[in-house]
Amino acid sequence: MIYLELLMGFLKVGCFTFGGAYSAIPLIRDVVLSYNWLSDEELSYMIAVSESTPGPIMVNLATYVGSSQAGFWGAVLATLAVVLPSFFVILLVMNLLKTVLKSKYAQAVLQGVKPCMIGIILATGCYMILHSCFPLTQSAKVDVRALLITAALIACMSAYRHLKKEKPSPIALIVLSAVLGMILY
Asked: Which of these, 2, 15, 50, 96, could form a disulfide with 60 (CB 3.0-4.6 Å)?
């Protein structure tokens, strides 16, 4: 019986919540209190914990409530119930977009937007590099460590492309920059 209550309660939350996690809190509060799964005080504590842990608040709350009421399988069921409505909406939208994206007009728009997006990303990257290496403060000194990290990343990326004839993994570059940052700073 508790599994059915968890399923129905969190399906309601997943289906009728719009506007993000904070707009879901009143509906979650209503469902949790109507089934007497947690007291208002316990729910308030759990909301605070859910905000400070990684992941969406709705999923964190559903997992915690499901776990506290029916153990592992309750947590799984409540989490699935809160996520499935959004998942199916996304599948529906993707199927509709798939046919729209095949039109020549949509393709023309995407081809026109692509260079703009590349320019925006490139400009953001250049801006970040320039402002981290050459800060615009009153005591503007060149940050030699940031320059060294940038030069090392560019050298590694160029060498990898030259030797392997393919792009390096962005994850590897992020890890390398983190390691260099820990060493130099």
From this structure: 50
Question: Are residue 46 and residue 81 in the same domain, yes or no?
Answer: yes
- Position 9 in a domain: yes
Q: Where does residue 53 fall: left (phi above 0), alpha (psi -120 to 50 degrees), or beta otherwise? A: beta
Tokens 């719009």 found at? 18
Tens of pLDDT along 103-160? 888 889 888 888 988 888 888 888 888 888 887 766 768 888 889 999 999 999 999 9
- Average pLDDT, rounded, for the chain: 87
Give residue for tokens 């728009």. Answer: 109
Q: Does residue 181 contact residue 149 with C-beta atoms inside 8 Å?
A: yes
